[in-house]
Every structure is written in C-alpha cells, then in structure tokens.
Amino acid sequence: MKKYFLALALLASMPVFAQEAPASDETIRELLTVSNAKGLVQGVYAQLDDYMAKAMKEAQGDVKLNAEQEKLMVEMRGKLIAAMQDQMSWEKLEPLYIKLYKDTFSQKELEGVLAFYKTEAGKALLAKLPTLTQNLMKYMMGQMQEIMPRVRDIANEYAEKIKAAK
Questions:
Q1: In a 3-state reduction of DSSP, which class is residue 22?
Q2: Residue 1: is its pLDDT beyond 80?
Q3: What percent of the chain has pLDDT over 90?
Q4: What are the residues whose beta carbons fall under 8 Å from the beta carbon of 114, sequence distance 6 or more?
Q5: Model pTM?
Q6: What's the gap between Cα 109 and its chain centre?
Q7: What gap in Å lies between CA 18 and CA 29, rounded to an integer?
Q8: How far apart are the C-alpha atoms of 134 and 152, rounded to whole Å?
Q9: Exposure class string for 75-91: b at 16+ Cβ within 10 A, else e
C-alpha cells in the first residue's frame, strides 16, 4: 500500500519536475527567417569593410601611398573580408545559431518571441535594430578612438616598468 501511495505521489509531482519541451529546429529556423539573421550577418561584412578602410587609412597616417600601393591596400582589404566571409558564412553559422537557440530557449519561449516579432512592435524592433546597433557601434568606435592615447600611454608606461623590473 505504501508503495502504491509513493508511486501516486511521484506521478502527481512529475509536472513539477518536467522540463519544458526543447525548441524545434523548425521553430528556430522560422525565428531566424523572421528576424533576418542571415541578412544581418551578411550586413556585418559591409560595415566591417568600411571599418577596415578607415582603420587602414588611420594606420597609414600622413604617409602618402602611390597608385600601386593604394591598389594593394584595396586588394588586401578585399581578401581579408573574403576570408572572414568564408570562415563565418551563413552556412557555417546557421548550425551554431540553431544549437545555441536550442540550448538557451524552450519551444514555448521561442513561440512567444515569434508571436511578438509578428506584431507591429516586433516588426518595428526587427526593422530598426540594425540601425540601433550600427549607431551604437559608431559611438563605441568613437569612444575607443578617444581612449586609445591613454591606452598607449599606459601600455608604454608598463612596458618600461616591466623592462626595468628585470
């Protein structure tokens, strides 16, 4: 009889211990489509190209490059972007996205996110998030440029201290 009540108690408590259903690949793929994850990843390369062009120009400083050197710099930048696109192509990233979403969210949670993204507010968020992110990155880059002289000074100071500590 005690075994019967113990079994009944365990069965009654099972919903408490049950985990939510894991997210399905189909739901994750729908979310990635609705959120234009592939387009966002591809858009990063254009931003990266602009950033690299500016960084190379700054690194060049006052040094004037001839036409051949300019051509080589553009060629190098193109090869760097192509290497990054190859290494981080959507075909390589999508399985990672699916795994990470599956490890992070339940099916119920992703269904809720999808429902939100299909509302006007959700669509507005998805449409404006790339602009928000781009503006945030511009701000952060500006902040990095402002702090770089301090970073260099600190690095130089400690390089000298480390050298003297021999």
A1: strand
A2: no
A3: 40
A4: 27, 30, 31, 34
A5: 0.64
A6: 21
A7: 25
A8: 26
A9: eebeeeeeeeeeeeeee
CB 65 within 8 A of CB 73: yes
Backbone angles phi, psi at 66, to 5 degrees: -80, 175
* CA-based torsion, 11, 13, 19, 20: positive or negative: positive
Q: Return the closest-CA partner of residue 126 out of 33, 47, 48.
A: 33
Amino acid at 87: Q
The first and second tokens of residue 75, run together, are 């060629």
CA distance 9 to 17: 12
Task: Indicate if the alpha-carbon torsion angle 150, 153, 159, 163 is positive or negative.
Answer: negative
Instruction: Tell me, rounded to whole angstroms, the distance of Cα 48 from its chain centroid.
Output: 13
3-state secondary structure of 118: coil
Q: Say if residues 100 and 25 touch (Cβ distance below 8 Å).
A: no
Q: Does residue 129 surpass a pLDDT of 90?
A: no
State residue 50's pLDDT score: 82
Other residues' Cβ atoms within 10 Å of the Cβ of residue 59 = 9
Q: How many CA atoms lie within 13 A of 146 on its CB side?
A: 6
Long-range contacts from 115-123, C-beta under 8 angstroms, 24+ separation: 117/31, 117/34, 117/35, 118/34
| Three-state secondary structure call for residue 35 | coil
> Is residue 81 within 8 Å of 49, Cβ to Cβ?
yes
